[in-house]
Amino acid sequence: MNRSGFYAIEGVDGCGKSGMVGFLVDHLRSFGLEGIATREPGGTPQGEQLRSLILSGQDDAWDPHSELLLMTAARIEHVRRVITPALERGHFIVSDRYAGSTIAYQGAGRGMSEDFIRTLHAQVVGDVWPDLTIILDLDAEIGLARSRSRLSASSVDEGRFETLDLEFHRRIRQSFLDQAARDPARHIVVDAFGTPDEVRARVAAALDAWAARSTSSHPST
Fold first, then answer.
1. PROSITE patterns attached here (predicted)?
2. Phi–psi pair at 85, nearest 5 degrees
């Protein structure tokens, strides 16, 4: 089965995305595939600089439109310098967040038009979307508590969105579920409640089932 391609891991803060990215990279490499892990915002020197601006400080540091444009600027560099070259080499990409997060956070969270976000993406990024988005679904209250605890134990200043209230994060979760419902061929939703081993097993099984379906619907000639 061909598992090369572009994968994104999405979900509310604290759902376990970062650890799952590493697991998924190892899982794909077990099939003899070559690829890399990356993240948004970030993935490039330019994107990492923008990440520090977007995720740090108080929530009122940026107008929502400015926040959207900064996210999009990081994505332009990420796609141009990392994602597209890797895919052209036939490698896989596993990204910790992508445009689905922009639709969830700046769209559902901030109340900006999803149509506007998608139009902006089409104009400046192009038709570059993951082959598969894996949504780690977790109750927003549990995820937020996990994320705040992790940030308080670290010296990393990336807690700007964690300062927002629970209702904001509940809108984020619902947006991810809505995105998956609208495009089930390119999304799988995995229950992220449980031990890391349990969640990894669910992801591996769901990914393998998706790959089998994709292969059967596009048989080689």
1. THYMIDYLATE_KINASE
2. -60, -40
